[in-house]
C-alpha cells in the first residue's frame, strides 16, 4: 500500500491528521488551478476550501477506480465553474458593475534570495506566462491546466472532459505552441 | 537527418516530456534529438515553457489548510452529534419494537393507530408520531423530528421515550438483564454497550441508569480486536446482515455506526 493509499484509508475512517496531509499534498495544485479559472485570489481561496470540503464529504464514496489526483481535479473543475457562474450571475444582477476578476494578478515573489533586479525580471516572466495562459481558448486552457497543475495523464484528462485522447494531445500541443509564441513575442523566451 | 523524421519527432515531443510515449517511441525521440540540433532546441524550448509554467504557480495560502481543517472539525462534530443521536433513538426504537412485539402491549395499537393521548400517559400527541416514524423506519420524518427532539431536551422528550420502553419492560416480559458489570464489557457508550460473550461473539444492549435491555438476539462476530487510529479505537462487529462500528474517540466519546450489508 502506498503512502497516499494509506492516507486515503485513514482519512476515510475520519482521521483528521491524514486528511490534513492530503490537503497539504494537493493544496498548491487546487489553488493554482482555481486561480487560473477564477483569476482572483480571494475566490481561488474560497474555491479551494470548497474543493477540500467536498473531498472530505465524498471521500467515503471514493473507491480508488480513478486516482485521487483525478478525483480532486474533477472536484476542482466543478467547484470553480460553479463558483464563477454564481459570481457572474451575481455581477450581472448587480446595479453597480464590479469586475471581480483582477485584470492582472499581482505576482507574489516568494524567492527571497533574488535581488531586486532578478525579482523584477522573475515577476515579469511569471506575469507573461499567466497572460499567455489566459489568452488561450477556453477548451485549450482547461486541458492544459489539467495537465500542468493537476499533472493528469492524457487518458484521465480525456475521460474527465469527455473527449478523445487525440483531442487532448492536440489541445496540449496547441496550447504550448501558443504560449511559446506569446513568450517569444515578449522576449521572454 | 531526414525532415520526415524531424516531423515525426516534433509531433511526439509533447507526449515525450509528459511521459506519454511507450518505450520504443521514447527511445526513438531520445536517439533522434542526440543527432538533430533543431529538434533538440525545440525540446529545450518546451522544457523551458514547462519550467516557466511551474514557476508561475504560487504556494497556496498558509491559512487554507487550517481553515479547511477548522471546517472539517466543525462538520465532524455536528455530524457526530447527529449520528449518535439518531443511532441512539434508532436503538431505542429497535428496543421498543422488540418489547412491543413481545408483550403485545396496548401501546403498540396506540402507536400504530396514532391514538397517543387516549391510550397512554407516557406519550403525548407530539411524541407519538415521532415514535411511530421510528417504528416504521421513516427516516426523513425522523430527520424532521431531530430538531424537535434536540431542542426538547429540557422538556424530557427523550426521557419520556425511554420511560415508555421501560414501562413496557417493567410491565411485560421483555428481555431485560441485570447489571452486566461481571460480563466482559467490550465497549460502553453510556447508552448502549457491547458485551463480549466468548472472545469472538458480541451481544448489544441498550443501557440506562435503571436497566439494561438486550437488543435482539443477534450475535455479532468481533472482526478485529480493535483498530487503533490517531483519533481513537474502532471495534468492528459483523452479523449476517450488518456491520457495526464502535469508534471510541481518544477523548472518550463513542460513535455507533450501523451499516446494512
Oligomer: heterodimer
Radius of gyration of chain A: 18 Å
Weakly predicted, low-confidence segments of chain A: 94-100
The value of Rg of chain B in angstroms is: 31 Å
The total beta strand count of chain B reads 9
Gross morphology of chain A is globular
Mean pLDDT of chain A: 87
Q: What is the ordering of alpha helices and beta strands of chain A?
A: HHHHHHHH
Contiguous helical run count of chain A: 8
Structural class of chain A: mainly alpha
Order of helices and strands of chain B: HHHHHHHHHEEEEEEEEE
Spans of chain B of 5+ residues with little confidence (pLDDT < 50)?
Answer: 102-162, 172-183
Distance between the termini of chain A: 43 Å
Can you describe what's shown?
The complex is a heterodimer of chains A (189) and B (261). With 189 residues, chain A is mainly α. Helix content of chain A is 72%, strand content 0%. Chain A is built from 8 helices and no strands. The longest helix of chain A has 26 residues, at 68-93. The model of chain A is unreliable at 94-100 (pLDDT under 50). By secondary structure, chain B is α+β, with helices and mostly antiparallel strands. Chain B is built from 9 helices and 9 strands. Chain B has helices spanning 3-17, 23-35, 37-56, 62-103, 106-113, 116-119, 127-135, 139-151, 157-171; strands at residues 176-177, 185-188, 192-196, 201-207, 212-214, 220-229, 232-238, 242-249, 254-260. In chain B, strands 1, 2, 3, 4, 5, 6, 7, 8 and 9 form a 9-stranded antiparallel beta sheet that branches. In chain B, helix 1 (3-17) runs parallel beside helix 3 (37-56) and helix 2 (23-35) packs across helix 3 (37-56). Chain B is elongated. Chain B starts with a helix and ends with a strand. Mean pLDDT of chain B is 64; it is low at 102-162 and 172-183.
